[in-house]
Design goal:
single chain, Immunoglobulin-like, 3 domains, six-stranded mixed sheet, five-stranded antiparallel sheet, 30 strands
Length: 323
Amino acid sequence: MLKIMKRKSFLNLPLFATVGLLAGCGTTVSNLTPKQVPQNPSGIYAMSMSTHIPDADVIRPTVESRIVIDGQEHPMSLKPGSRNIYVYEYDMPEDQNEAKYYYLINYDVLYGSKSKPKELKSELYEMQLINRYVITMDTSRAPVGARISIVGRGFTEFDKIAINGVEADTFFTSPNSLMFIVPSLEANQSYPVSLISGTGNMHIGSLRIDPSSIQVNQKKVEVAQGEKMILLFQIDHDAPKRGLMIDVTTDVPDSVIMQEVIIPEGARTVSATIEGGEAGAGKLFITAPGFKETVVPVTVADNYVPEQFNEDMEMDYVPQEIL
């Protein structure tokens, strides 16, 4: 038995922009093409990059960008509505699942009354096709313990889902579907969701954890000193692996004696015994990560019973007026 301590106050793939400084000036190129790209039935993949040319004497209409893929040069077009983002739709050969490429930037710079052409080359990049990806999560917010499905492609029984780096209980249902249980994390916050596999981590999206509640079978606790009462704690969803620790504190620690409260893995309820200590009145504060605080008033009564007068007892003193 432990005495309670005193309360103390769809497709979402990461877009990695690789920035390179081109030789000879402050011109930079940001590669907007992910290194890993989900395979699609058409075999056409968008490749893009952005440029920054700080030279004040550059002749803007002369700026051109090209992409060289596996030794073949292709012109890029300016993205509609953009001044510095260039795109190219690459039709990858059927027998390929990767490509190496780099960008070329051409423009003229004005020197006095004459113009001088420049050609700048980016670093070498690589793009790989993957046959596994996530299409969607069936919700973007849920309480602790809720079950959430993920639809995609190429899942295996070894895949795991992590919320803010915390591995969630994950269940493989098919190569196109996974299911996980929201772990016990602080509520009212959004956390990144990742797919963990043997080939690395893949960002899926974000999940906001809404607060859940812990129900107690007693609205108030009233016991005498040394008297015991059973409390039942209940949550709305199954407890996660290793169980859910319920944090029970009080502002009258000398009045309440109680065992540790843990809802077992897969269960929704647990009972615990509370025992009256010293006489007093206060509150129990009940919570867990991801759960709203539940407050239960507690009163421990003094069980002192004054000694009753016994007429058969011999009197050492009898008032004079009785004699």
